[in-house]
Amino acid sequence: MRKSKVLLIEDDPSISQVIVEFMSKHGYEVTAFSDGPEALESVRQNGLPHIALIDLGLPSMHGFEVANKIKSMADVPIIFVTSTSDTDTIVQGLKKYAEDFIVKPFELRELEARVQVVISRMPSLDYASEPVVRIDQHLEIDFAHNRVILDGRNITLTPTESILLHVLLRNAARVVENRMLIARVWPGQEVYEDTLRVHMHRLRRKLEADSHHPHYIRTERGVGYIFTVRPPASFGQDDPQA
Fold first, then answer.
1. Residue 218, pLDDT above cutoff 60
2. Where does the pLDDT of residue 12 fall: very low under 50, low under 70, confident under 90, or very high at 90 and above?
3. Alpha carbons 143 and 169: distance in angstroms, whole number
4. 26, 72, 87, 164: most buried, per Cβ within 10 A?
């Protein structure tokens, strides 16, 4: 089993060090940064984390801005780790970006438990954590750069399309209900299924040779959508059943 990748963005080196040491001992692969731009560049180079732990009071970029940029790539679960206890800030963070909030000072065991709970709610995380996810001989996905590579051609995705595709891929071969897609892609917003259908139609036009007879994304009428192709178990290698 692969270790869960944790992206830690914390500008206090002493706090960062103890989190890295504790989480590493408990089986996580932790990459730590002291500022948002460095962390975001690492994601672009090395792929998405399974979860991000983000401080709010960062030097050059507020934690909400960092979270927003990560969320423009994919539906990466986020926990804010911060010294603020302001209710309005916590509510805003939870509605727009985060699965959870943990206020300093905290027990490391509590942090690890919260991370474990969030990750356990996110199915098939390995399907979307590589720098470039190879689906089959025709399609690859680069979430960090909002693009797909289809038969060697780079095709740009909008942030909304990228998040939609990420949620579907994370649930590959399972139907994702419309209400879940809306909740994950537009958290805290009043969005209707017509909007979802428009964005899904645009995404299909970019992925499918014939969007009216789709190969990758199939509609379960009245229920939701399904990404029909499971990526190979080992990325970068040919699928033995392909």
1. yes
2. very high
3. 11
4. 164
Q: For residue 210, give both structure tokens.
A: 């014939």
For residues 144 and 135, the answer to whether their CB atoms sit within 8 Å is no
Task: Please report the pLDDT score of residue 242 as a whole number.
Answer: 29
Closest to 34 measured CA to CA, from 50, 61, 13, 63: 13
69-128 pLDDT per residue, tens: 999 999 999 999 989 888 999 999 999 999 999 999 999 999 999 999 999 888 766 655
Tell me the residue type at 224.
G
- Residue 104 corresponds to which tokens in the numbers above? 């300093």
Q: What is the C-alpha separation between 165 and 66, in angstroms, rounded?
A: 21
CB neighbourhood size of 203 (10 A): 23
**Closest residue by Cα to residue 203 from 242, 146, 151:** 146
Instruction: Name the more confident of 191 and 240.
Output: 191
The total number of residues written for the chain in this structure: 242
**Domain extents in the chain:** 5-122, 131-227
CATH class label, 5-122: alpha beta
Pairing of strands 133-134, 78-82: unpaired
Is pLDDT at 241 greater than 90 in this prediction? Answer: no
131-227 fold = Arc Repressor Mutant, subunit A (1.10.10)
